[in-house]
Amino acid sequence: MRIKTLIAAALLLAPLPAQAMEGHVEPLFWRLTLDQLERHWQDGQDATSWKLDGFIGGDYEKLRIKSEGEATDGHGVEELEIQALYSVMVDDFWDFQAGIRHDFRPQPQTSYATIGFQGLAPQFLEVDAQAFLSDEGDLTARLETEIDLPLTRQLILQPHAEIDLSAQDVPSQTIGAGVSSLGLGLRLRYEIVQEVAPYIGLSWEKRLGESARLSRAAGEDPDRVSFLAGIRLWL
Amino acid sequence: MSLFTRGLTAAMLLAFAPTAQAQHHDHANHHSPADATAAGQPGKADTATRTLDVTLGEHFIDPGTIRVAPGETVRFRVTNKGEFLHSFVIADTKTHGDRQAMMGMMLDHGMITETAVNPDQMKMDHGDGHGMNHDHHDLLLVAPGKSAELVWTFPQGGDIVIACDMPGHYEAGMAASLTITR
Amino acid sequence: MTMGTEGLSRRDALRLAAAAGMAGVVSLYPGRRSFASADHETSLLVEETSITIDGDRFGAIAMGGSVPAPTLRWREGQEVVVQVTNRLREPTSIHWHGLLLEGMMDGAPGFNAYSAIAPGESFTYRIRLRQSGTYWYHSHSGGQEQRGMYGAIIIDPAEREPVRADREHVIVLSDHTADHPDHIMRKLKVSEGYYNKGKRTLGDLIGDIRRDGLAKTWADRRDWGDMRMDPTDLADVTGYRFLANGKGIQDHWTGLFKPGERVRLRLINASAMSIFDVAIPGLPMTIVSADGQNVLPVKVDEFRFGVGETYDVIVMPTEDRAYTLMAEPIDRSGYARATLAPRPGMAGEIPPLRPRAILTMADMGPHHGMDHGSMDHGSMDHSSMDHGAMDHGAMDHGSMDHAAMGHDAPVPAPPTRDGPPQGWDQAGTPPGKRALTYADLKSLTRNADTREPAHEISLRLTGIMERYIWTLNGHKFDHGGPIRVNQGDRVRLTFVNTTMMAHPMHLHGMFFELENGQTDRKPRKHVVIVPPGKTVSVVLTADEPGDWPLHCHMLFHMNAGMMTRFIVTPSSATATL
Q: How far apart are CA C573 and CA B61, in angstroms?
């Protein structure tokens, strides 16, 4: 009787890691979002740009890839940036991210170490805030926010704002210290299904202060307004 | 009156028990024609041809099938062996519906609970037209563990059901089928 | 005794269990039947199949050859044996939902030393039936339950059946979709609100401003926005076909009756994710049993049906016509339909779908960091209350008691205004009709143990909708510690729902006694719905030693982590160890 009880007790009390995890293995999830693939029509050179976001991981930790770039007609790819980040949940709505960024364009190529926060602020504002330290020792930051406003179930208006900051002048990239540029966008997308949504929109970019001066010196227009049309996809 | 010393409940149920009518100031006469329904009328104990023991419980009336002769007077000795308050009602289907509604009202007003009769409430006039109706002589309330009696004279025929009309009990199957046959 | 638990195989565990007298006679060799001295024997093959719903084919998993699986009819006191053979390419399991049994036979992988049944293998369950009533069985592995692994269990009582019916029908409600459960889980994880087709739009905004005025609409939008939550989130997953006994709304399953008969319907909500409002227009229902346990009969017109719950109801159709049993999921994304008719081939009227309720700040409860702390959830009169313009300071909270909490009656909604019914519990009950509330449930038998609990356990139901992480006390399954009590302990479990979803909480191996205002007739339940923002408490006597799952019965909530271990340490073990 005593033996039986002991066995029963052992069965009940012993931790059973193999069994415990059975059917409840921490699963990995992934998603690849082509957030923007769009054509810009503007004064001067028309352009094509894209923005990509992908992750793989569990609930709390993820590996995250971000990329964006732009190709101007007649000049080929002028901007191409890729980030690889480790992302960890620090709050119900926020992830802390750290990793590397490499800009393949413009030339010469630049590498950065980066940290930042990505998440959902009150009132459903999607926020991505990052700081970058380049291999030249230059410190810059980027703050992006956007929100989805459903007009109907399938028609969604998405305002977007971006602000770029720099701690110092980076003449090679036509960046001046302080607020270097502001960007506003408004995209109206139609979700055929959630994964596939063509859109049209407007965007406005303005370089400020020293950045504007450097741009003009480089023969670029520091103000840029464009009509755009594109498609948003995710898998 | 001796019939009513059997159980507290039965004693409290002067209003319901037909043999109590003689005690009741409102009803000078035994078994006025108003007491008669399509299902028969209260009978005099001394005219009963037999006594039938009936058991109530959750949710049954035992025996589940009762045969009587046309015009027969039967003395029902009803014992509640369940844990809840039950009733014993001889009526047609429509009257059962009325009784169920009435007992639902009594529950809502606290005159009865699911397990007992509330003696204070039973004497109260609720002043809203929902006071005790003293004319339901086909209805016997029996508290858990108690017994009560009902003497009933059946008609020559008809569609009669014996059931408990506490809300939900009839639906749960607390009914006995009654056959009037020679 | 020392034991390498890492490598403990199911067979080892079985052998040990058998030696310990826990499991009785078991089959040690897959494929070999060991039915020694059983009163009832059944074999169930688990295999891939396809089913046809209203003309469309869907992939499914069958147990015993059908979806739903065959109804198992047993008698209290019997020893039953069920041999389950897995013909799937993945491990499977069968859990006997609501049955009192040895832990090893409970069928939840990872608990009680039970492991899932590997592909090609068999497992023999042996259960001594200690109860009667309507229960069910289903897979406890991954998302298999949603793919068709569910069926009814009916156990006839050894003594007199307290309900006498002329005939009875089992009605198993479920939800089926072409989407594989793994695929659904991924969508939920990577795309918040993927399945919510009812998000508020500009049109809704204009409508709300017209109806409620700009200030109120603004305040309402601001409150939801602060929480980053969506008041239209009533269900996580949509796109389901709702089934009654495996039949869709066109094929509609039909149960026959003769007018005047007492018909007992044994209803089982075997759906993965769908809480239903159930009604049979024109036919009142008398509830006689909840979760297999007899209750004092209560006559209602409708009831809200949590995932995993069972109700037995009596209907007495007197007319020679067909009736429609309607089961509408609370997000009103469709309905399940069954027909009760005097003859085959008839169809009852189908009432229009009821409006979908919208959640209010009251549904968020006092747990969201916003100042809603002083609302009285227990006794407020919803019909007379203006939710939108609620005065967050004025309501009396101090007088709230346990018994009244969380069981507020789904009082008839005020459908007078243009907008949807306001509040989770607003079922859109027609005026003059009565909906069951938990407070109506009274056990037909007295509770055996009426001791005050010595052990108070608070379990916050938590989650992050945005990430689709569901947790208990903030921990995913096996990330937090288990609940430990000693055999014989009287325990109170208080569920505090801090989320905006309802959670039907299910305990294996033991019944909860729901604290619904009853003293010695608390209804015994194996699932209790904890509405959004509400608190519901249960008590129980921990008289079944074992390592029992305690989880939300929403399939994807459980699989996303909303589960814990409820460990009852045997009293003899505490004495000897």
A: 48
Residue from C75, C284, C79, C285 nearest C161 by CA: C75
Measured distance CA(C40)–CA(C81) in Å, rounded:
6
Task: Closest CB to C201: pick one of A8, A93, A153.
Answer: A153
pTM: 0.84
When CB atoms are compared, the residue of A21, A27, A150 closest to C199 is A150
Domain count for chain A:
1
Kindly report each contact of residues A124-128 with a partner whose C-beta sits within 8 Å and lies 24 or more positions away, as own/partner: A124/A148, A124/C225, A124/C228
What φ, ψ does residue C17 adopt, rounded to 5°?
-65, -40
Which residue in C163, C289, C300, C447 has the most chain B C-beta atoms within 10 A of its own C-beta, making it the best mutation to test that interface? C163
Kindly report the number of other CB atoms within 10 A of residue C136's CB atom.
28
Number of Cβ pairs < 8 A linking chain B and chain C: 48
pLDDT band at C368 (very low <50, low <70, confident <90, very high): low
Q: Which of residues 314-333 of C touch B (CB under 8 A)?
A: 314, 316
Residues from B in contact with C at Cβ < 8 Å = 57-60, 64, 83-84, 114, 167-169, 171-174
Q: What are the structural domains, with CATH classification, of chain B?
A: 2-29+42-180 (2.60.40.420)
Query: Which one of 2.40.10.120, 1.10.10.10, 3.90.930.60, 2.60.40.420 gives the CATH number of domain C5-160?
Result: 2.60.40.420
Share of chain C above pLDDT 70, in %: 83
Which parts of C451-546 fold into alpha helices (H)?
A: none
Give the rounded distance of the alpha carbon of A67 from its chain centre: 7
List the single best residue of A16, A95, A149, A193 to mutate versus C (max C Cβ within 10 A).
A16
Lowest mean pLDDT among A166-170, B109-113, C209-213: C209-213
Domain boundaries, chain C: 5-160, 162-196+232-354+430-436, 197-231+356-426, 455-576
- Please state the ipTM of this predicted complex: 0.84
pLDDT at C367: 54
For the segment(s) C162-196+232-354+430-436, the CATH number from 2.60.40.420, 3.40.50.1010, 2.60.40.1230, 3.40.50.2300 is 2.60.40.420
For C286-344, write each residue's pLDDT tens digit: 999 999 999 999 999 999 999 999 999 999 999 999 999 999 999 899 999 999 999 99
**A7 is written with which tokens?**
């066995």
Residue C238: what pLDDT?
83
Using a CB–CB cutoff of 8 Å, tell me whether C164 touches chain B.
Answer: yes
CATH architecture of C455-576: Sandwich (2.60)
A with B: touching (≥3 Cβ pairs within 8 Å): no
Contacts of A19 in chain C (CB under 8 A): 8, 109-111, 113-115
Alpha-carbon distance B175 to nearest alpha carbon in chain C (angstroms): 9
Would you say C164 and B60 are in contact if contact means Cβ atoms under 8 Å apart?
Answer: yes
Question: Is C576–A2 a contact, with Cβ atoms under 8 angstroms apart?
Answer: yes
